[in-house]
Amino acid sequence: MPAPLTLDGFRADLAEYLYQRPDEVDLEESPLLAGLDSLRIVTLIERWRETGVDVNFVELAECTSFAQWWHLLSARQSRQARQAGQTRQTSQEGVDRAGA
After folding, report:
1. pTM over 0.90
2. Domain count, the chain
């Protein structure tokens, strides 16, 4: 299982494409005004998908700041983790019943 995306990791990913240090990334800034073009955004989406966060271009395009991106990504990541936990629990319950 890949390591989860953290706020520090998110900032570092943005900083790489904005040519800044992570502590220089202004989360209230608009991604487009900050200089991210669609190719860089798609590249970031692929990187974040590798951490297990299912997000698409349209969802990010609807956000007007990096803070909104982080809110979307972290909420999605939390929801996916809960769903994975429920799936594992249901699978284990089935194994327990089968073994009884």
Report:
1. no
2. 1
